[in-house]
Amino acid sequence: MKIKRGFASDNNAGIHPDILSAIGGANDGHCIGYGDDPYTAEAYRKFTETFGDDIDVYMLFTGTAANVLGLSAVTRSFQAVLCSDFSHLNVDECGSPEAVSGIKLLTVPVPDGKLAPRHLKRFLAALGDEHHSQPKAISVTQSTEVGTVYTVEELLALSRFAHSNGLFLHMDGARLSNAAAFLGTGLKSLTKEAGVDVLSFGGTKNGMMIGEAVIFFDRELSRDFKYIRKQGMQLFSKMRYVSAQFTAYLTESLWLQNARHANRMARLLASKLEAFPGIEITRPVEANGVFAVFPEKYLNAARKNYFFYTWDPAGPVVRLMASWDTTEDDIVSFVSALKSA
């Protein structure tokens, strides 16, 4: 069965051949379960090569778990996390931060998806007041849900604000690779060196099959995380298959090759769409997402052959995502569908 590649989500893309090969390569003989295996040791070595020696890394299944359990490690149930009002943590985790960890989300409306210290200062008034949830962490998404990218300087401003007020900085790095590719920086520059305390590091949107990593840049913060992971039902018995993927992902900068390609395809798609009268690109195309106003005639024409999401019905604004395996022919086909209108 051959299914057409579309632009609904980078989650819909397949597995990169190198990563699929790594999974097959790990399928040899028996290994001790739960991470005490050579494949997990090698993945850990790759992580330390990338982010530095003084880190702790834990493999998990899903991005939801990585975000929620990572934040559980640095908060208690009477504390709160500050985040964007349309962050994935707030909109798309089905209340799991509240249900699983008991933490309150305090949301901030930010048109470009990016938090800054000026948005957060008002929450400091609650510190020390027993009647209010106590702010304890700031959570940012890189790249953001509207495709914008935090610069190193913007992250440094947030981490300095956080640390000077006794808060932690958490990053949802589901598309961190795309952000690094856009900025031309390393992964370490955008995380550890920018003052991030806890990172949810994902690869499933960029060529991996399954698996996330929670990375602590201060080992003291991860002291109890092995229990949090187990209690959160995220300790994978055959961990070697997740670990092998991360080894391939971090070898010879596969993460960067994939992200650069996805970003380039997004820019190409945007440039083609701009040629249509009435279609308007509404956000800077910095990572691998394109947000555009689509007149109804184009919307109907495209949906005859493609599935994608309406981001804002009022526009209507649609979200189109390029992936590591998007081709120029895919874009030509999509544009041809629009031309039929």
Notes on the structure:
There is one protein chain. The model has no long low-confidence stretch (mean pLDDT 95). The chain is α/β, with parallel strands linked by helices and 341 residues long. Helix 1 (17-26) packs antiparallel against helix 10 and helix 2 (38-51) packs parallel to helix 10. It folds into two domains: 17-253, Aspartate Aminotransferase, domain 2 (3-Layer(aba) Sandwich); 261-339, Aspartate Aminotransferase, domain 1, CATH 3.90.1150.10. The protein is built from 13 helices and eleven strands. The protein has helices spanning 17-26, 38-51, 63-72, 88-91, 96-101, 117-120, 152-164, 176-183, 225-231, 240-250, 254-273, 296-303, 328-339, and strands spanning 56-60, 79-84, 104-108, 134-141, 168-173, 198-202, 212-216, 280-281, 289-293, 309-312, 317-321. The strands form two sheets. It has a seven-stranded mixed sheet. It is globular, with a radius of gyration of 20 Å.
Give the helix/strand layout.
Layout (H helix, E strand, L loop, with lengths): L16 H10 L11 H14 L4 E5 L2 H10 L6 E6 L3 H4 L4 H6 L2 E5 L8 H4 L13 E8 L10 H13 L3 E6 L2 H8 L14 E5 L9 E5 L8 H7 L8 H11 L3 H20 L6 E2 L7 E5 L2 H8 L5 E4 L4 E5 L6 H12 L2
Parallel strand pairs: 2-3, 2-4, 4-5, 5-6
Antiparallel strand pairs: 1-7, 6-7, 8-9, 9-11, 10-11
Helix pairs in contact: 1-10, 2-10, 8-11, 12-13
Please state the second-level CATH architecture of the largest domain: 3-Layer(aba) Sandwich
Low-pLDDT segments, ≥5 res: none
Q: Give the CATH superfamily of the largest domain.
A: Type I PLP-dependent aspartate aminotransferase-like (Major domain)
Please report the first level of CATH classification, the CATH class of the largest domain.
Answer: Alpha Beta
- Described by the principal axes of the CA atoms, the overall outline is globular
Radius of gyration: 20 Å
